[in-house]
Amino acid sequence: MRVGIVGGTGEIGEGMAMRLSWIMDVCVGSRDPGKAQETCDTCLISAKERGIDCSVRSGNNQDVVRESDVIILAIPFKHLKSTVEGISGWEGKIVISPVNPMERRECFVYTPPAEGSAALFLQNILPKTTRICTAFNNIAGNRWRDISSELEYSVPVCGDDAEAKQIVMDLVNQISSLKAYDAGPLSSSHIVESITPLLLNIARFNKMKDVGIRFV
Ligand SMILES: NC(=O)c1ccc[n+]([C@@H]2O[C@H](COP(=O)([O-])OP(=O)(O)OC[C@H]3O[C@@H](n4cnc5c(N)ncnc54)[C@H](OP(=O)(O)O)[C@@H]3O)[C@@H](O)[C@H]2O)c1
């Protein structure tokens, strides 16, 4: 199984690329393949330092979708529509949305689109056969990139396709110490997405850093 990361050069994308490329085949995507290659080089160096294998290749975002079975959309909400509509070949693919629509006002505020969540927005713009799941919404980019630390977080996963959801949960459970939890249908994604502005407000008002969630 190959996992592709559209926007794999970004704040969460790069850390995801590193940690995933140590355990499975990864394709890092960007609008600029040269930038994607830089992220691949970072993955290869991180693996070499740890003395472990690494399987990573670069491409543009279209290459990532064509060559991958599971695609993570590591893109800000405001660029989601143009990015998704500029790429073909989504049919039958498993698509993971870590996307949280939000704004920073006097504090962080969840600002979902009319559909109710980024995940349901995606469902409207992707072909009907695309198997969308929500996951990885509540882990800070800094934590992904801090590769010397374990990720000891819970990861709620939403989706309507039972087989795709199981594949995504199995994927989550292979990364560091992450633990996946079934968080219901795709229509529940707004609950998961809206946790992130809460985490950011807690971090800000309590002078904490990179707050995450763990269900016990
Ligand atoms: N940052 C976090 O801590 C965090 C935590 C949980 C969830 N998330 C969610 O994860 C997603 C990615 O967040 P991020 O912070 O990683 O984002 P980011 O670093 O701001 O951007 C990610 C990538 O998006 C691409 N991009 C930027 N502008 C674009 C445009 N105009 N059109 C198309 N692509 C563009 C860039 O890739 P190229 O320039 O290489 O094309 C960039 O590297 C967001 O939806 C966010 O809500 C973030």
From TrEMBL:
Keyword Hydrolase on entry: no
Keywords: Oxidoreductase
EC number from the UniProt entry: 1.6.99.-
UniProt enzyme class: oxidoreductase
Residues of the signal peptide: none
Cellular component, GO, one term: plasma membrane
One biological process term in Gene Ontology: copper ion import
Superkingdom of source: Archaea
Pfam family, one: F420_oxidored
InterPro entries hit by this protein: NAD(P)-bd_dom_sf (IPR036291), NpdG (IPR010185), P5C_Rdtase_cat_N (IPR028939), STEAP_metalloreductase (IPR051267)
GO MF terms, alphabetically ordered: coenzyme F420 binding; cupric reductase (NADH) activity; ferric-chelate reductase (NADPH) activity; NADP binding; oxidoreductase activity, acting on NAD(P)H
Cited NCBIfam families: npdG (TIGR01915)
Name of the protein in its database record: Reduced coenzyme F420:NADP oxidoreductase
Species: Methanospirillum hungatei JF-1 (strain ATCC 27890 / DSM 864 / NBRC 100397 / JF-1)
